[in-house]
Specification:
- The protein is an alpha+beta fold.
- Helix content is about 40%, strand content about 15%.
- Strand 7 and strand 8 form a beta hairpin.
Protein backbone atom coordinates (compact mmCIF):
# COMPACT_ATOMS: atom_id res chain seq x y z
CA UNK A 1 0.00 0.00 0.00
CA UNK A 2 1.23 3.52 -0.78
CA UNK A 3 2.40 5.49 2.24
CA UNK A 4 1.14 8.71 0.65
CA UNK A 5 -2.52 8.02 -0.05
CA UNK A 6 -4.62 9.85 -2.63
CA UNK A 7 -7.05 11.05 0.04
CA UNK A 8 -7.69 10.48 3.73
CA UNK A 9 -11.06 10.92 5.44
CA UNK A 10 -11.74 14.14 7.31
CA UNK A 11 -13.20 12.13 10.17
CA UNK A 12 -11.79 10.14 13.08
CA UNK A 13 -13.46 7.40 15.07
CA UNK A 14 -13.15 9.49 18.23
CA UNK A 15 -15.53 12.05 16.70
CA UNK A 16 -18.34 9.51 16.28
CA UNK A 17 -17.71 6.87 18.96
CA UNK A 18 -20.09 8.22 21.60
CA UNK A 19 -22.89 8.81 19.10
CA UNK A 20 -22.38 5.36 17.58
CA UNK A 21 -22.91 3.90 21.05
CA UNK A 22 -26.12 5.92 21.42
CA UNK A 23 -27.39 4.60 18.09
CA UNK A 24 -26.71 1.00 19.13
CA UNK A 25 -28.45 1.53 22.46
CA UNK A 26 -31.47 3.13 20.81
CA UNK A 27 -31.77 0.46 18.12
CA UNK A 28 -32.61 3.22 15.57
CA UNK A 29 -30.32 2.23 12.71
CA UNK A 30 -32.52 3.89 10.08
CA UNK A 31 -34.91 6.85 9.95
CA UNK A 32 -33.45 8.24 13.17
CA UNK A 33 -32.60 11.70 14.42
CA UNK A 34 -29.30 11.92 12.55
CA UNK A 35 -30.93 11.25 9.18
CA UNK A 36 -33.46 14.01 9.77
CA UNK A 37 -30.78 16.39 11.09
CA UNK A 38 -28.41 15.71 8.18
CA UNK A 39 -31.17 16.55 5.70
CA UNK A 40 -31.93 19.82 7.42
CA UNK A 41 -28.26 20.74 7.73
CA UNK A 42 -27.71 20.15 4.01
CA UNK A 43 -30.68 22.43 3.29
CA UNK A 44 -29.29 25.11 5.58
CA UNK A 45 -25.79 24.84 4.12
CA UNK A 46 -26.71 24.84 0.42
CA UNK A 47 -29.76 27.11 0.45
CA UNK A 48 -31.89 24.51 -1.34
CA UNK A 49 -35.52 24.18 -0.30
CA UNK A 50 -35.70 20.36 -0.17
CA UNK A 51 -33.14 17.57 0.36
CA UNK A 52 -33.46 13.79 0.28
CA UNK A 53 -30.78 11.28 1.27
CA UNK A 54 -30.00 8.23 -0.88
CA UNK A 55 -27.65 5.27 -0.97
CA UNK A 56 -25.36 6.86 -3.59
CA UNK A 57 -25.14 9.58 -6.22
CA UNK A 58 -25.94 6.90 -8.79
CA UNK A 59 -29.30 6.09 -7.21
CA UNK A 60 -29.88 9.84 -6.80
CA UNK A 61 -29.26 10.47 -10.52
CA UNK A 62 -31.41 7.47 -11.48
CA UNK A 63 -34.27 8.86 -9.38
CA UNK A 64 -33.91 12.19 -11.18
CA UNK A 65 -34.27 10.46 -14.54
CA UNK A 66 -37.39 8.66 -13.28
CA UNK A 67 -38.76 11.94 -11.93
CA UNK A 68 -38.29 13.61 -15.32
CA UNK A 69 -40.01 10.73 -17.09
CA UNK A 70 -36.96 9.83 -19.20
CA UNK A 71 -37.84 6.86 -21.38
CA UNK A 72 -36.95 4.95 -24.53
CA UNK A 73 -36.50 7.24 -27.52
CA UNK A 74 -35.55 10.27 -25.42
CA UNK A 75 -32.16 11.97 -25.42
CA UNK A 76 -30.34 13.44 -22.45
CA UNK A 77 -27.25 15.57 -23.06
CA UNK A 78 -24.49 14.77 -20.57
CA UNK A 79 -21.00 16.10 -19.89
CA UNK A 80 -18.57 13.70 -21.50
CA UNK A 81 -15.83 13.97 -18.84
CA UNK A 82 -17.26 12.11 -15.85
CA UNK A 83 -17.67 8.85 -13.97
CA UNK A 84 -19.81 6.44 -16.08
CA UNK A 85 -22.84 6.65 -13.76
CA UNK A 86 -23.69 9.99 -15.36
CA UNK A 87 -24.49 8.26 -18.65
CA UNK A 88 -25.46 4.87 -17.24
CA UNK A 89 -28.61 6.17 -15.54
CA UNK A 90 -29.82 7.46 -18.93
CA UNK A 91 -28.89 4.28 -20.76
CA UNK A 92 -30.60 2.12 -18.14
CA UNK A 93 -33.98 3.70 -18.92
CA UNK A 94 -33.65 3.08 -22.65
CA UNK A 95 -32.87 6.69 -23.51
CA UNK A 96 -29.79 7.87 -25.37
CA UNK A 97 -26.99 9.78 -23.64
CA UNK A 98 -25.69 12.47 -26.01
CA UNK A 99 -22.16 13.45 -25.04
CA UNK A 100 -21.27 17.14 -24.93
CA UNK A 101 -17.59 17.99 -25.12
CA UNK A 102 -15.83 19.89 -22.36
CA UNK A 103 -13.34 22.71 -21.90
CA UNK A 104 -9.66 21.78 -21.77
CA UNK A 105 -9.27 24.34 -18.99
CA UNK A 106 -12.26 23.86 -16.65
CA UNK A 107 -13.08 20.27 -17.78
CA UNK A 108 -16.76 21.28 -17.84
CA UNK A 109 -19.45 21.21 -20.53
CA UNK A 110 -18.92 23.64 -23.40
CA UNK A 111 -22.00 25.86 -23.93
CA UNK A 112 -21.49 25.95 -27.70
CA UNK A 113 -21.37 22.16 -27.92
CA UNK A 114 -24.52 21.87 -25.81
CA UNK A 115 -26.33 24.23 -28.19
CA UNK A 116 -25.29 22.12 -31.19
CA UNK A 117 -26.57 18.89 -29.67
CA UNK A 118 -30.03 19.99 -28.54
CA UNK A 119 -32.67 18.28 -30.69
CA UNK A 120 -36.45 17.73 -30.57
CA UNK A 121 -35.70 14.49 -28.69
CA UNK A 122 -33.71 16.23 -25.93
CA UNK A 123 -35.57 15.93 -22.62
CA UNK A 124 -32.92 17.05 -20.11
CA UNK A 125 -29.31 18.12 -19.61
CA UNK A 126 -26.91 16.70 -17.02
CA UNK A 127 -24.10 19.12 -16.17
CA UNK A 128 -21.17 17.61 -14.27
CA UNK A 129 -19.17 19.74 -11.83
CA UNK A 130 -15.98 18.03 -12.97
CA UNK A 131 -13.95 17.07 -9.91
CA UNK A 132 -15.99 19.52 -7.84
CA UNK A 133 -15.62 22.53 -10.18
CA UNK A 134 -18.93 24.32 -11.01
CA UNK A 135 -17.40 26.78 -13.51
CA UNK A 136 -19.91 27.50 -16.28
CA UNK A 137 -22.93 26.01 -14.52
CA UNK A 138 -24.92 29.25 -14.57
CA UNK A 139 -24.28 29.70 -18.31
CA UNK A 140 -25.54 26.17 -18.98
CA UNK A 141 -28.62 26.94 -16.88
CA UNK A 142 -29.37 29.98 -19.06
CA UNK A 143 -29.25 27.81 -22.19
CA UNK A 144 -31.51 25.17 -20.61
CA UNK A 145 -34.05 27.81 -19.56
CA UNK A 146 -34.09 29.26 -23.07
CA UNK A 147 -34.82 25.82 -24.53
CA UNK A 148 -37.25 24.76 -21.79
CA UNK A 149 -35.04 21.88 -20.65
CA UNK A 150 -34.63 20.75 -17.03
CA UNK A 151 -31.05 21.01 -15.77
CA UNK A 152 -29.76 18.18 -13.59
CA UNK A 153 -26.51 18.95 -11.79
CA UNK A 154 -24.31 15.93 -11.23
CA UNK A 155 -22.60 17.52 -8.25
CA UNK A 156 -21.29 14.18 -6.98
CA UNK A 157 -17.94 15.87 -6.26
CA UNK A 158 -19.12 19.41 -5.58
CA UNK A 159 -20.55 19.84 -2.10
CA UNK A 160 -18.81 22.92 -0.71
CA UNK A 161 -18.36 24.54 -4.14
CA UNK A 162 -20.19 27.62 -5.42
CA UNK A 163 -20.56 29.91 -8.43
CA UNK A 164 -21.43 33.62 -8.18
CA UNK A 165 -21.92 33.17 -4.45
CA UNK A 166 -24.54 30.41 -4.79
CA UNK A 167 -23.61 27.02 -3.43
CA UNK A 168 -23.97 23.86 -5.49
CA UNK A 169 -27.33 22.39 -4.65
CA UNK A 170 -29.18 25.68 -5.06
CA UNK A 171 -28.39 26.55 -8.70
CA UNK A 172 -29.69 23.82 -11.02
CA UNK A 173 -33.30 22.58 -11.17
CA UNK A 174 -32.24 19.45 -9.33
CA UNK A 175 -28.86 18.43 -7.89
CA UNK A 176 -27.23 15.18 -6.81
CA UNK A 177 -24.38 14.82 -4.30
CA UNK A 178 -22.18 11.84 -3.47
CA UNK A 179 -20.79 10.86 -0.08
CA UNK A 180 -18.40 8.19 -1.41
CA UNK A 181 -15.02 7.79 0.37
CA UNK A 182 -13.25 9.86 -2.33
CA UNK A 183 -15.52 12.83 -1.55
CA UNK A 184 -15.04 15.56 1.05
CA UNK A 185 -18.04 14.25 2.98
CA UNK A 186 -17.56 10.51 3.33
CA UNK A 187 -20.32 8.29 4.71
CA UNK A 188 -18.90 5.07 3.23
CA UNK A 189 -21.50 5.25 0.49
CA UNK A 190 -24.36 7.70 0.18
CA UNK A 191 -25.88 10.54 -1.76
CA UNK A 192 -28.49 13.27 -1.78
CA UNK A 193 -31.03 14.93 -4.08
CA UNK A 194 -31.78 18.66 -3.74
CA UNK A 195 -34.45 20.78 -5.42
CA UNK A 196 -36.52 23.91 -4.86
CA UNK A 197 -39.61 22.53 -6.61
CA UNK A 198 -42.39 21.50 -4.23
CA UNK A 199 -44.03 19.16 -6.77
CA UNK A 200 -40.79 17.32 -7.39
CA UNK A 201 -40.15 17.12 -3.64
CA UNK A 202 -43.57 15.56 -3.08
CA UNK A 203 -42.89 12.94 -5.77
CA UNK A 204 -39.48 12.15 -4.26
CA UNK A 205 -40.92 11.90 -0.75
CA UNK A 206 -43.41 9.28 -1.88
CA UNK A 207 -41.07 7.35 -4.19
CA UNK A 208 -38.20 7.28 -1.69
CA UNK A 209 -40.65 6.28 1.05
CA UNK A 210 -41.72 3.03 -0.65
CA UNK A 211 -44.83 4.73 -2.02
CA UNK A 212 -46.25 5.93 1.30
CA UNK A 213 -48.09 9.23 1.44
CA UNK A 214 -48.44 11.20 4.64
CA UNK A 215 -47.88 9.67 8.07
CA UNK A 216 -45.67 6.56 8.02
CA UNK A 217 -46.22 3.61 10.28
CA UNK A 218 -48.88 0.93 10.86
CA UNK A 219 -51.83 1.43 8.57
CA UNK A 220 -49.98 3.83 6.26
CA UNK A 221 -51.46 4.16 2.79
CA UNK A 222 -49.30 3.17 -0.17
CA UNK A 223 -50.47 5.47 -2.95
CA UNK A 224 -47.72 4.50 -5.41
CA UNK A 225 -44.91 2.01 -5.80
CA UNK A 226 -41.55 3.18 -4.49
CA UNK A 227 -38.02 2.30 -3.48
CA UNK A 228 -35.70 1.82 -0.53
CA UNK A 229 -32.59 3.93 -1.17
CA UNK A 230 -32.30 5.07 2.45
CA UNK A 231 -29.08 6.30 4.04
CA UNK A 232 -28.48 4.53 7.40
CA UNK A 233 -28.38 6.43 10.67
CA UNK A 234 -24.67 5.88 11.32
CA UNK A 235 -23.80 7.11 7.83
CA UNK A 236 -25.88 10.25 8.39
CA UNK A 237 -24.02 10.87 11.65
CA UNK A 238 -20.69 10.64 9.81
CA UNK A 239 -21.98 13.10 7.23
CA UNK A 240 -23.08 15.60 9.88
CA UNK A 241 -19.67 15.63 11.55
CA UNK A 242 -17.92 16.44 8.26
CA UNK A 243 -20.49 18.95 7.02
CA UNK A 244 -19.94 20.96 10.20
CA UNK A 245 -16.29 21.57 9.23
CA UNK A 246 -16.64 21.58 5.44
CA UNK A 247 -15.70 25.24 4.99
CA UNK A 248 -12.36 24.78 6.74
CA UNK A 249 -11.72 21.62 4.70
CA UNK A 250 -12.28 23.52 1.45
CA UNK A 251 -10.02 26.37 2.61
CA UNK A 252 -7.28 23.91 3.49
CA UNK A 253 -7.48 22.06 0.17
CA UNK A 254 -7.25 25.33 -1.75
CA UNK A 255 -4.12 26.25 0.20
CA UNK A 256 -2.55 22.89 -0.70
CA UNK A 257 -3.56 23.40 -4.33
CA UNK A 258 -1.73 26.72 -4.42
CA UNK A 259 1.47 25.11 -3.11
CA UNK A 260 1.33 22.42 -5.81
CA UNK A 261 0.61 24.97 -8.54
CA UNK A 262 3.57 27.15 -7.58
CA UNK A 263 5.86 24.12 -7.64
CA UNK A 264 4.61 22.38 -10.80
CA UNK A 265 3.46 25.07 -13.22
CA UNK A 266 7.06 26.06 -14.12
CA UNK A 267 7.52 22.47 -15.32
CA UNK A 268 4.53 22.55 -17.68
CA UNK A 269 1.81 21.11 -15.44
CA UNK A 270 -1.55 22.86 -15.96
CA UNK A 271 -4.00 22.74 -13.07
CA UNK A 272 -7.77 22.53 -13.65
CA UNK A 273 -9.03 26.10 -14.01
CA UNK A 274 -12.09 27.79 -12.56
CA UNK A 275 -12.60 31.57 -12.30
CA UNK A 276 -12.82 34.35 -9.74
CA UNK A 277 -16.60 33.74 -9.57
CA UNK A 278 -16.09 30.12 -8.45
CA UNK A 279 -15.23 28.62 -5.08
CA UNK A 280 -13.88 25.18 -5.97
CA UNK A 281 -13.78 22.61 -3.19
CA UNK A 282 -10.82 20.81 -4.85
CA UNK A 283 -12.49 17.43 -4.45
CA UNK A 284 -9.68 16.17 -6.65
CA UNK A 285 -6.50 18.10 -7.40
CA UNK A 286 -6.00 17.48 -11.10
CA UNK A 287 -3.27 18.64 -13.50
CA UNK A 288 -2.75 18.12 -17.20
CA UNK A 289 0.73 16.65 -17.57
CA UNK A 290 3.28 18.35 -19.86
CA UNK A 291 3.19 17.64 -23.58
CA UNK A 292 5.14 14.50 -24.37
CA UNK A 293 4.72 13.01 -20.88
CA UNK A 294 3.15 9.58 -20.44
CA UNK A 295 0.57 9.97 -17.69
CA UNK A 296 0.16 6.22 -17.14
CA UNK A 297 3.91 5.75 -16.74
CA UNK A 298 3.92 8.56 -14.19
CA UNK A 299 1.16 6.88 -12.16
CA UNK A 300 3.08 3.61 -12.20
CA UNK A 301 6.41 5.17 -11.21
CA UNK A 302 4.86 7.22 -8.43
CA UNK A 303 3.20 4.09 -7.08
CA UNK A 304 6.60 2.38 -7.05
CA UNK A 305 7.91 5.05 -4.68
CA UNK A 306 4.87 4.88 -2.39
CA UNK A 307 2.75 7.72 -3.78
CA UNK A 308 -0.84 7.00 -4.82
CA UNK A 309 -2.15 8.96 -7.82
CA UNK A 310 -4.78 8.29 -10.45
CA UNK A 311 -6.34 9.58 -13.67
CA UNK A 312 -8.65 12.62 -13.71
CA UNK A 313 -11.78 10.79 -14.82
CA UNK A 314 -13.28 9.15 -17.93
CA UNK A 315 -14.22 10.29 -21.44
CA UNK A 316 -17.57 8.52 -21.51
CA UNK A 317 -18.24 8.56 -25.24
CA UNK A 318 -14.83 6.99 -25.83
CA UNK A 319 -15.35 4.02 -23.49
CA UNK A 320 -15.78 0.68 -25.23
CA UNK A 321 -19.51 0.32 -24.56
CA UNK A 322 -20.59 3.81 -25.60
CA UNK A 323 -18.14 4.11 -28.49
CA UNK A 324 -19.40 0.84 -30.01
CA UNK A 325 -23.05 1.75 -29.55
CA UNK A 326 -23.06 5.46 -30.46
CA UNK A 327 -19.62 6.28 -31.97
CA UNK A 328 -19.63 9.85 -30.67
CA UNK A 329 -16.58 10.39 -28.47
CA UNK A 330 -15.83 14.17 -28.24
CA UNK A 331 -12.24 15.31 -28.78
CA UNK A 332 -11.36 17.40 -25.71
CA UNK A 333 -12.60 14.91 -23.15
CA UNK A 334 -10.68 12.10 -24.86
CA UNK A 335 -7.54 14.21 -24.59
CA UNK A 336 -8.19 14.94 -20.92
CA UNK A 337 -8.73 11.24 -20.23
CA UNK A 338 -5.17 10.56 -21.46
CA UNK A 339 -3.39 13.53 -19.91
CA UNK A 340 -4.92 14.32 -16.51
CA UNK A 341 -3.29 13.29 -13.24
CA UNK A 342 -4.85 13.46 -9.76
CA UNK A 343 -2.44 14.18 -6.91
CA UNK A 344 -2.78 13.57 -3.16
CA UNK A 345 -4.44 16.50 -1.40
CA UNK A 346 -5.35 16.49 2.29
CA UNK A 347 -4.17 17.77 5.66
CA UNK A 348 -0.59 16.73 6.38
CA UNK A 349 0.26 15.41 2.91
CA UNK A 350 3.96 15.66 2.10
CA UNK A 351 3.67 17.97 -0.91
CA UNK A 352 7.45 18.40 -1.19
CA UNK A 353 7.98 14.67 -1.53
CA UNK A 354 5.24 14.34 -4.15
CA UNK A 355 6.63 17.25 -6.17
CA UNK A 356 10.22 16.07 -5.98
CA UNK A 357 9.19 12.57 -7.04
CA UNK A 358 7.33 13.98 -10.04
CA UNK A 359 10.38 16.04 -11.04
CA UNK A 360 12.68 13.00 -10.84
CA UNK A 361 10.31 10.95 -13.01
CA UNK A 362 10.23 13.74 -15.60
CA UNK A 363 14.03 13.81 -15.89
Amino acid sequence: MSDIRLIKPYLSYDEVEADFCDIFESGMFTRGKHVDAFRQEIIAYTGAKHAFLTTSATTALWMCMKLLGIKEGDEVIVSDFSWPATANVVEDLGARPVFADVSLETFNMLPEDLEKKISPRTKAVIFVDALGNPAGLSKIKEICERHGLPLVEDAACAIGSSEFGRRCGSIADITCFSFHPRKLINTGEGGAILTDRDDWAKWLEIKLGAGVSGIKGPGADFVDFGYNFRLPEMAALMGRKQLAKLESIVDERNEIRDIYVAALEPYGYCVQASSSDVRHNIQSLVFRVPSGSDRNVMISKLKAVGIETTIGTYALGSTTYYQKKYAQGPANSAQLFKTTLTLPCYRGVDVDRVVESIKKIAL
